Amino acid sequence: MTIYVVTLPGTLLTELTPEARTELTRALRGSDPRETDLGVAEDLDLLTLYPESSAFSLRLEVEAADTATAEARARDLAMAALRSVGLTAEAAPLGDPVITGIAGP
Description:
Order of helices and strands: EHEEHE
Number of strands: 4
Shape: elongated
Strand content: 25-35%
Helix content: 25-40%
Structural class: alpha+beta
Distance between the termini: 6 Å
Radius of gyration: 13 Å
Strand order of the largest sheet: 2-3-1-4
Largest sheet: 4 strands, antiparallel
Oligomer: single chain
């Protein structure tokens, strides 16, 4: 298996409270397949909210056999994390995933 960093852009159509942001970050940390406390040990910014904009991006590390599987897995993880804080696909639509990093097994 290969480890991929996948970036997913999105748009928040409802406000993300500070509590929801904390919970979303906590839910995204669960996507670290090697349990390395993703975002701290890996220095990966999981959630970026862009000032003066409703745009955001998520960066997730996933294990997969190929890029298509990595993109699908990252999208599933992102949607599950967003749902866990009460954001539906309509309230926080995601754009196309992009592979932004690859590490060997």
